[in-house]
Amino acid sequence: MHDPLSRCSWCNLSDRDRQWLLFETESWSVFLADEQDYIGRCMLVCKRHCAALSDLTTQEWTDLKQAVDRIEVCLKTALHADLCNWSCLMNSFYKSDPPVPHLHLHVRPRCKQPVLLNGSAYPDAEFAHHYDPKKKSVLREEDRMALFKHLKAHLPL
Amino acid sequence: MHDPLSRCSWCNLSDRDRQWLLFETESWSVFLADEQDYIGRCMLVCKRHCAALSDLTTQEWTDLKQAVDRIEVCLKTALHADLCNWSCLMNSFYKSDPPVPHLHLHVRPRCKQPVLLNGSAYPDAEFAHHYDPKKKSVLREEDRMALFKHLKAHLPL
Residue A1 has what pLDDT? Predict the structure, then answer.
């Protein structure tokens, strides 16, 4: 038998992924997302290999609220986000057979005013509308570290 | 001063909305959604006028898990959903000035095999991909009550 967890890249995050870790709780790791379609997009990854929200333990669910509160307050403070778009989708895992889903959530801050970062302005052209799921990353690579440090500096205690 | 809650249609759900109530918990009402872009799509509406996940109380968050578990198990049992797509977006409220957001979550069951209902087959053409946010309702109106009853019959206790 092949161990499915050994095939799960979310159970085996690389150092490259981990360099963008904003904070962690007992059960969750919160990263600045690779795909910056909306500036400040983050991912909350369950530390345990778990397939669905309904599979979370009470402790993991309670702990998720702490992570949600902390990153939502951070995005509202640091980027003046008016709201946050939350999603937990898991679709891509089901392209494999058998699927090896690993629970994670996406959060996209949505900002009426352009985000100002490192001298660049990033407007949200779809504000007040559904995020564009096909939108490509808009963040200039030279601004990624500035964004990461800016968010780190605005994480509530 | 105009009371913002009197302008909130989510605080004042009509009898027409309420006829599709699947179940409720202390803090949440769970409805079959009007928009059946994916068969079995439901909405979880916070009973309190509340703007964001980070504004939920501990009790409301704990109670949300019960609602999530119940509807996710129901959708997997009744429709053979392989997974559920969860989202909490709130974008449309921000078309108004001032916005009067009322917290709710969407859940779209995603099914590899077509859902069979009342003699009709409903395939999920985007399975393993992001739901199409512009997709129109696909449910035949004559199948809506059958779907509602089918879900009610599969709600876990």
Answer: 46
Does residue B157 form part of some domain? no
| CB-based contact, B52 to chain A, within 8 Å | yes
Give the residue-averaged pLDDT of A80-101: 97
Q: Rounded CA gap, A56 and A75, in Å?
A: 25
CATH number at residue A53: 3.30.428.10
What is the predicted ipTM? 0.96
- Reference A144, options A44, A70, A35; nearest CA is A35
Q: With an 8 Å Cβ cutoff, is A56 touching chain B?
A: yes
**Residue in B69, B76, B105, B124 to test binding to A, most A beta-carbons within 10 Å:** B69
**Residue B108's closest chain A neighbor by CA?**
A89
Number of folded domains that form chain B: 1
Q: Which distant-in-sequence residues (6+ apart) come within 8 Å of A108 by Cβ?
A: A37, A38, A40, A41, A84, A85, A87, A131
B71: containing domain: 4-152
Residue B1 above 50 pLDDT? no
Task: Tally C-beta pairs within 8 A across A and B.
Answer: 105
What pTM, to 2 d.p., does this model score?
0.96
Q: What integer pLDDT is reported at residue A157 of this predicted model?
A: 86
